[in-house]
Amino acid sequence: MTEGIDDPEDVLGRYESLVDDVTAFREACARPLPAVVRVNEIEAAPDEVRAGLREEGIPFETADWHDGLLRLPEGDPGHSWAYAHGWVYGQEEVSAVPALVLDPEPGERVFDPCAAPGSKTTQLAALMEDTGLLVANDSNLGRLSALRSNAERCGVSNVLVTRSDARNFSLQPFDDEPFDRVLVDVPCSCEGTIRKNPDALADWTLDHVEGVSGVQKGILERAVEVTRPGGTVVYSTCTFAPEENEAVLDHALRNSECELVPFDLPLESRPGVTAWDGAEYDPAVERARRIYPHHNDTGGFFCAKLEVTA
Amino acid sequence: MRDDDATDGGEAPTENQPHQFDRLPATVADRDVPERATREGVVEYWRDRYGVDPAVWDGYTFWEKGAGKVWAFAADVPSPVEVEALGMTFLRTGGEHWKPTTDAVQRFGRYATADDTVVDLSRERARRFLAGGDQDLDWDGDWGYLVVRHEYGGRPEPIGVGLFLHGELRSQVPKGRRREL
């Protein structure tokens, strides 16, 4: 097991057969990540935020793959004018990926079924230039409160917040009109956040992985149902577990009206895996992308893009 | 329910449904709940008091949830609707003086062009304001609720709402948004 990580079951060892360089993977997982903020373009442009941070004497470095992601070597400046004005949002670099892959346009109807605490919701709103309709849902009242507070601080005005189980989300308040795009960023076992939370694996159990996999399948199934034909669904997690990634996609391909489509990423990634622990998945799951910590020095992530066919 | 501003007041009358959002009527002639603000009134308020071009609100709908609590939403849905939130808290109507929320001023204060209701503070004064403190201010403009800004990141940036009375600027930044920088 890797030093500094609370990983009693050696969960990461489970994935050694999937990675190209086990030592680099292990070492990357044990290194803490720098704090990162995303520029909230509803309130300010990246150059304005950089000017503001310089005024405040807060050192930063712009991520090489995205002008609006700023790495902060001295930590997260929660107490700063940049935060007070809602100009920035603390967000792990790799978690900015799924909203970019969904790529919503101004004026569209977009759904974020597992929205709290709102890092991706606020990013979606900014990509939509705070126009169109963004429905942000979560099931937990406490997490909804965080979502609302973050959306308010970021000046998001195109968001409608609902509270429901995403598996049973109702279109009834929206005249049954389906969405153009849905971001299915599901609850997961969060193994990929180990660099941010060294105890992310402390309570890991296979039972939990299998249980949450069922929830993920239900959420993705409902997301496909509420998306118009030709619309886009992005599925993402921050776990390495194929049970929560490729197995969920395989289930959707077999049971829902959708197909996996290829997409480009600005980060180095690997294809989805077609076999795991005795199970075999639809070969199309290779179109999903796995982001490992040692390839781009980020957290771990999984992202797939689906097109709704009927 | 969390409160959206530092100062609060007013109980919801019975004709308002506290968990439901109702779209504001376009004008007084369209109104069926007495005393409810109208879209026309809201747009005029921002134009007349803060010099905000009415065109800013072209894509917006305005909603009430609880008496006098107006929300601004950059989209539209069938009214009434029961949801957790609809856009952002925007304006407290009712009573003699309407009051913009901190959210509204941070998001839309950039469109304010009036010079007698928009005040620019030095960095030191801005810090005191963000911390929630009151301060004496030599100000020849209007009394009442002002858009308070400071220079940050190369532009004048709104911080929140200040209440100016008798030579004193009182910060209206809600407790949860105050910071000691």
Explain how this protein is built.
The complex is a heterodimer of chains A (310) and B (181). Chain A is an alpha/beta fold and 310 residues long. Helices cover 28% and strands 22% of the residues of chain A. In chain A, the strands form three sheets. In chain A, strands 5, 6, 7, 8, 9, 10, 11, 14 and 15 form a nine-stranded mixed beta sheet that branches. In chain A, strand 2 (61-62) and strand 3 (69-72) form a beta hairpin. The termini of chain A are far apart. The model of chain A has no long low-confidence stretch (mean pLDDT 95). By secondary structure, chain B is of the alpha+beta class. Chain B folds into two domains: 21-110; 115-177, Archaeosine Trna-guanine Transglycosylase, Chain: A, domain 4. Chain B has a five-stranded antiparallel beta sheet. A five-stranded mixed beta sheet of chain B has the order 7-9-10-11-8. In chain B, strand 5 (88-92) and strand 6 form a beta hairpin. Chain B is elongated and about 45 Å long. In chain B, 39% of the residues are buried. Residues 1-14 of chain B have low confidence and may be disordered.
Mean pLDDT of chain B: 91
Q: What separation lies between the terminal Cα atoms of chain B? A: 28 Å
Note the overall shape of chain A.
globular
How many helices of chain B does DSSP assign? 3
Helix content of chain B: 10-25%
Number of strands of chain B: 11
* Number of DSSP strand runs of chain A: 15
Low-confidence stretches of chain B: 1-14
Shape of chain B: elongated
Strand sequence of the main sheet of chain B, in spatial order? 1-2-3-5-6
Low-confidence stretches of chain A: none
**Estimated share of beta-strand residues of chain A:** 15-25%
Instruction: Tell me the series of helices and strands of chain B, N- to C-terminal.
Output: EHEEEEEHEHEEEE
Derived structural class of chain B: alpha+beta
Topology pattern of chain A, helix = H, strand = E: HEHEEHEHEHEHEEHEHEEEEEHE
The computed structural class of chain A is: alpha/beta
Number of helices of chain A: 9
